[in-house]
Amino acid sequence: MSGPRFSSAVLVTIALISYPATAHAADPSAPRQLPVTVCDFASVDPRVLAAAEAVAGEVYRGAGVDIEWAESGCIAGPLGLYVNLVAVEKENVHLAELLVGFAESGGLTATVFYNRIDLLARRHRKKPAIVLGYVIAHELGHLLLPPHSHSATGIMRATLNLEVSTRALRVSFTPEQAELIAGRIAGTSAVVATH
Question: Where are the beta strands (DSSP E) in 123-189?
Answer without folding.
Answer: none
